[in-house]
Amino acid sequence: MLIALDATYSVGDALSGVGLYSHEILHGLAAGHPETRFDFCYRPHRYLRARRLSLPGNARRRMLLEPLLPRGADLFHGLNQRLPRLPYRRAIATFHDLFVMTGEYSTAEFRARFTEQARAAAARADAIIAVSAFTKSQVIDLLDVDAARIHVVHHGIRQLPAAEVAREPVILSVGAIQKRKNIARLVEAFEGVDGGWRLVLAGSNGYGAEEILARIDKSPARERILVMGYISPAELAKWYASASIFAFPSRDEGFGMPVLEAMAAGIPVVTSDRSALPEVAGDAALLVDPDSTEALRAALKELTVDVELRMELARRGVRRARMFTWERAVRETWDVYRKVLGVNEGP
Prior knowledge:
The chain is an alpha/beta fold. The protein contains 13 helices and 13 strands. The strands form two sheets. It has a seven-stranded parallel sheet, with helices on both faces. A six-stranded parallel sheet has the order 10-9-8-11-12-13, sandwiched between helices. The relative contact order is 0.12. The mean pLDDT is 91.
């Protein structure tokens, strides 16, 4: 059996959530099913970098251009809600989020292109993998897809050993500086937190960053706010190990990997009560209305003074994070393949 996958986003120095998902699914499938052949397909702008990567023995590298795509594949899996125009015997598309279609979080040009690609992929796919029940509901509502065609497969996390370092009075937030992440409101809420605490923002600039950074520069708490920009995974791990509170008041997330990472690191979490975030956090976080500065400020202040609550949420978070593994995600993805291909027996 030959399975082709869009591996484009698995290449790069700074893998996004989609990139991490792609890498884990690609290599997990190849390792778990040595009897199956895989074509890892890369769009031209990433293909040259992909040529420097070592691949599993049962995988080969292909360029994701219509004339060059493997015709004999039994299945094509688009890992980022896109599918080639070339028809395949069977096709699956993973949908991560549809926030571009629902809010003022991108340019009109990008929104139009994204919407066209998402609708085309949803129409061509024999099955859709959604990374959360929330994303599934969006695919149903916005793309008019029958619920029976959609399978929820959550992301995973690789648990790290607990850090043997002292926690500092730091509120950490990880994610792009963009409107959707609600950074300006987080800054406003933080201004009411005791002066002994710092706010650390880790993430590259995104849509609307200029306005958000200008707001930060005008903050009366500016000297206590550290804007890191993009930082390496190794440096980020240090912040996860030393921060005392994690804040993620995003307005719209298809999954919310930073929340899962923070819980796995043993940091008590404050996050939004909407989109996929309650689904990921469960009872292991303080959930607040992301449009209420007062609610966010109250949650942050409560955690800064209540050590026992911080410890309890940290314990719950570690337990919660153990429910999300890449091994499970790979296994459930393979189950979707089998259903689409009509395979009743096998690995």
